[in-house]
Amino acid sequence: MNIDCEEPVVFFEKGHYQFMPFRFRRMKSHEVLLTSVTGEFIFLSSDEFSKFVGKKLALTEEIYKKLKSKSFLIDHDSAHLDVLASRYWTKKSFLREFVKLHIFVLTLRCNSSCTYCQVTRQAESANKKIYDMSEETARRSVEIMMKGPAKNITVEFQGGEPLLNFNVLREVVLYTESLNVEHHKNISFVVCTNLSVLTDEMLFFFKEHNINVSTSVDGPRDLHDYNRCRKIKSARYDVVVKNIRRAQEALGRHCVSALMTTTRESFQYPREIIDEYIKLDLGSVFVRSLNPYGYAVKTQNSIGYSPEEFFLFYRRVLDYVIELNRRGIGFAEATAAMLFRKILTPWPIGFVDLQSPTGNGFAVTVYNYDGDVYASDESRMLNEMGDARFRLGSVYEDSYETIYFGQAMQLLAATGVAECLAGCVDCAYVPYCGADPVRHYATQKDAYGNRVASEFCKKYSLIISYLFEILRNADAETENIIWSWLNDAPVDRFEIDMEKEICRLE
Description:
The chain is an alpha/beta fold. Among the domains are: 18-91, no CATH class; 97-301, Aldolase class I (TIM Barrel), CATH 3.20.20.70. The chain is 41% helix and 14% strand. The chain has helices at residues 46-53, 62-69, 81-91, 128-131, 135-146, 166-183, 200-208, 221-227, 237-251, 270-279, 295-298, 300-303, 307-326, 334-344, 377-384, 400-404, 407-415, 437-444, 455-473, 476-486, 498-505; strands at 18-19, 22-26, 32-36, 41-44, 73-74, 101-105, 109-110, 122-123, 152-158, 186-192, 211-216, 256-261, 284-288, 332-333, 364-367, 372-374, 391-394. β9 (152-158), α6 and β10 (186-192) form a beta-alpha-beta unit. α5 (135-146) runs parallel beside α6 and α13 runs parallel beside α19 (455-473). It starts with 17 loop residues before the first strand and ends with a helix.
């Protein structure tokens, strides 16, 4: 019996090239943006794009050489698969150490009453035994944390107002340091606080143990106080500003950072908000949109907005930040800096929202005041709203293994890879975006979610599109400004030599 053999596969014919995986998007400029699986990008004219996909580019054309150098195509002379694999692994290297951010919710009690609060808070006078983390819970949480494989970890203290439970904060730090004599991890600490109850004793402890401070300033006095309960004096602008300066003096300017939360009222003050941060000698700002959790859900009708409205505000802020840099005032916006880092370098970022596979559970763990463990702070917020879907376990009932290999983590793994999700898989922005199944569950009641229709997708699509618009039209000065946000000092060249950059960062 004769068996017909299949013809051997021919990958190349003389003068032809082979496509490497890419996605594309038509831009407002009528050009076509191509992005690779590793985040490389290139702009093509419509004619260039047609010639590229029709395999009609000549080997001598400059655009051919650029496409080849960025691994959009390979030919007989290419040896790019190993390079591509190395670049992809570098992009996903945040997975190497597993969880690096560990959040300790020291209390639900708070002495403020922000209109946009994303948690279910309790009054400062509430029962400490019920709403404060105990020393035993703290020690059990630290023991779980130290079992992880990560050599570089950040311990972040949240609340409520974490400084209302300062004794347990101190216990976490001291117990972590004592266990680290054996584990030899590189550990950093940060406390997220409104600074209203800051004391000299706390500052001395922060200085002694290299603890950074993150706070919130929503803008100038009237805006800041508008977003807080005016009846609560401790949350007012004057108190926060005074204690920012105290912290800067005690710890150093670079050990104190701040973010702002955008409400509808913020739309009137894009420049004033940035001017306030510069006045306070804060080197950057994180322009944060509202989160769909906790008290913010109740106030949505009065302070909320659409993704499109937020973007218009964000664009005004970013344009002003760039303008200030052109005047010689060094200042950065955190979202833009993180996204530019993803677009322009091979290096990942630690921001959970913009990670794929999702950072929920895989890059961050939250230890609640009551000993419950969650995949993210947003997961904890959902639980406070009555949905424990993303609860990983308890430090009292579960081992390290059962916490990280349970049903919640399996759900996150199944729905948390943007490159495999409908609506994301063919999006040109997927190398720079994230999956965030927790947010999609919160807003769409489905961890998988209808990504294209989600507010998350709309917001980041608008922002990323604008960043590419900036890159496309950037002059040398703008290019240097962008790189100054990614490096300690501005660089002279936009397209830096990658090998040198890798050596510098290593």
